[in-house]
TrEMBL record:
It comes from the Bacteria. This is Trk system potassium uptake protein TrkA. One of its GO terms (molecular function) is potassium ion transmembrane transporter activity. Residues 148-229, 375-456 form the RCK C-terminal domain. The keyword NAD applies. NCBIfam families: PRK09496.1-2, PRK09496.2-1, PRK09496.3-2. Residues 2-128, 234-357 form the RCK N-terminal domain. One of its GO terms (cellular component) is plasma membrane. Keywords: Ion transport, NAD, Potassium, Potassium transport, Transport. Coiled coil: none annotated.
Amino acid sequence: MGLQAIVVGAGKLGFEVARRLSDAGHDVVVVDRDAEALAQAADRLDVMTLVGHGSSPSVLRKAGVASAQLLIAATDSDELNIVTCMTAKTLGEPFCVARIRNPEYSSPAGAAQPGRLDLARLGIDRVVRPEDLAAKEIIRMLRTPSAAEVEYFAGDRAAVVSFAVDEHAPAAGRSVTELGLTHTVVAAVIREAGTVEIPSGSTVIHPGDRIYFMGRAGNFQEARRIVGREEHPMRSLVIVGGSPLGYEVAQFLGKMRRTGLSIRIIERDRERCRELAEQLPPAVMVLAGDAARPDLLEDEHVAQSDACILTTGDDHRNLLVGMMLKGMGVRYCISELSREEYLPLAHRAGIDACVVPRLVTASFILQLTQRRNVRNLALVEEGKAEILELEAESGCPAEGRPIGDLRLPPSAVVGIVVREGEVLIPRGATRIQAGDQVLLFLRPEGVDAVQHLFRQG
């Protein structure tokens, strides 16, 4: 049985959250003052809509807040989101999630600081800051340079990474069995057309494919080798753009104090440069200039950096600078995008990885609705596939059975088993034990069947 959820705000984030909640089988009501935005949501999603002010008690009552288990305040106003959650808590007991952009508001629950609001006492159970979540996603990617996507599971013991296959890579033209992998598992292949394929041993890899590998965190050397991606030490990094996301990334990197790592941030607005220089750690060098000018990139030797992160706040500018940098030979380039429609264009431009803060935030919120034995969840290719971390419950149908006998749906593959802290690469004869954390790659149509196998009763 699904949750009763209320999403306040029918903007890009609210729409994405409502879509994913509805697709997961939850009952969703979307509230907004903009009747046109609600009409689009009603036309494209299986949700109820209600025109009105999200912080209004009468509107929330009509939305069913008294019986709702979840409320997400996702408007563009921090203050409205805070008041909406406060009001909801006086009318019912939903788990309240608020999008808060201003870091001065968003002290962790139970850790209120002088001069800051204690949001937990105001009825907010979880704060989400898109820039903070996207910055952490970028930092995770930097831990595995040249990867298009990185996700960590089982307390960061296991990971799922994706790499694009170079034209002359050893994997090109070979079947999965012929790859001879021993430390990693090929969990999925994304073809150039964007289709998601759960591979068998006979599946042939082609140049331009993206392969998802599962394995022990930090142990993807063989995966790099077969896709033609050499590993280089990270000594210099450039952030292009002093946007809120660029600032968050620079803060994270500056505080890490990694020995020998040069960090520079380039911003064309001189006033913003002064703010950045005052607020960022001393380890971060702030440069004033327009990174869209090739002469600046050449003068500052940006192309010689080991990684460039594009966070100008403008998709077109990020793509332009990214194309120039890849053309100049930069090794690894990550771009922020606000519109996922530009992802194929970014890949064609040679940009190695992209982060869409709205999608990262929606995925994080969706994790709050996880069912009983779901430990973690990540969406792949805008929801075309999922990575599920499940716990095998005592007495579940899978307990004691070899993986090869589980009769998994064709759209699912077991990639990792974590047992008592040890990461195992499973084979067909590997038997599932109660308490195992099982990492699966699957398409949405296989989720219910897979969860049944690992759940008691």
